[in-house]
Amino acid sequence: MRFFLPAITFAALLTALPSAATPVPAAAGQPPAGGTISAIRLSFQEQEPGTEAYVSRYIVTDRYLRIDDGVPYGDFILLDRRTRTIYSANDDDRTILVIQGKERHVHPPMKLVASQRQSPLPDAPAVAGRKAEHHTLLTNGKICYDVVAVPGLLDKAVAALREYRLVLASENQRMVPLTPADVQDACDLAHNAFWPVRYLRYGMPIQEWSPQGYHRRLLDYDETYQVSASLFVLPKGYRRYTMEVSAE
Question: What is the per-residue pLDDT across 8-38, written as a single tens digit (0 to 9) for each?
Fold first, then answer.
């Protein structure tokens, strides 16, 4: 069944990547092809500061999360949930950035204190029979993120978003010791490195935004989406690399 959601305001995610690159074997993480797979599809409208709004499609299966712009070709991101690996395919230069989720023992470079407050939404319409909640997330007393979420909605998709965020956070944690102290920000550290799934504890986000101007809202979703298994196959002949610095 397909649902369309009312608008309110929105925002979220993604991360800056370092400059070093180390090749990885082309055989790693190749999903099976052929046939059709049942999935959950999410459509988001997103906007970053200084850019036009764009639409992203998220496709969730038991094993994969694919993020693209709604077409079966071009650039896309693929999370292999089983191996905790993100593959970011770039069609222009025929490369695949590989980010392997790892347990890291990195401590925040500054004290981080979390707090939150909930605001009433008396006029918010129900989504699939559930009421939305508005939560404001603060770090060190500073507003970092707002999320309007629906508890119990699309729990399987929320789980995939959590896994994706945790893999990205492991890469961001790796970069923390390499980042100059004068450019480190408590909100950025909390949201992207040390508490990356804090905003997901309240259910499926239908609208998100940050003080910096990032916005995202859920346009619609389909829990019975049928998708070709070929969308989860990585392109052949692309050079794969990782941002980890080689030990050699």
Answer: 222 222 233 333 455 555 444 455 556 899 9
CATH 3.50.50.60 is right for the domain spanning 2-242:
no
Q: Indicate the burial class of 32 (C-beta count within 10 angstroms; 0-12, 13-18, 19 or more).
A: exposed
State how far Cα 168 lies from the chain centre.
8
Pairing of strands 95-100, 239-242: parallel
Model pTM score: 0.86
Is 234 in contact with 78 (CB distance < 8 Å)?
yes
Query: How does residue 73 score in pLDDT terms, banded at 50, 70 and 90?
Result: confident
Which residue, 43, 30, 162, 44, is CA-closest to 87?
A: 30
Q: What is the CA angle 234-236-237, rounded to 5?
A: 135
Per residue in 106-122, pLDDT tens?
Answer: 999 999 999 999 999 98
Map out the domains of the chain as residue ranges: 2-242
Q: Are 86 and 99 in contact (CB under 8 A)?
A: yes
Per-residue CA distances from 138 to 75, 82, 98, 208 (Å): 34, 32, 32, 14
Residue 39: which residues within 8 A CB-CB, separation 6 or more?
A: 59, 60, 61, 225, 226, 227
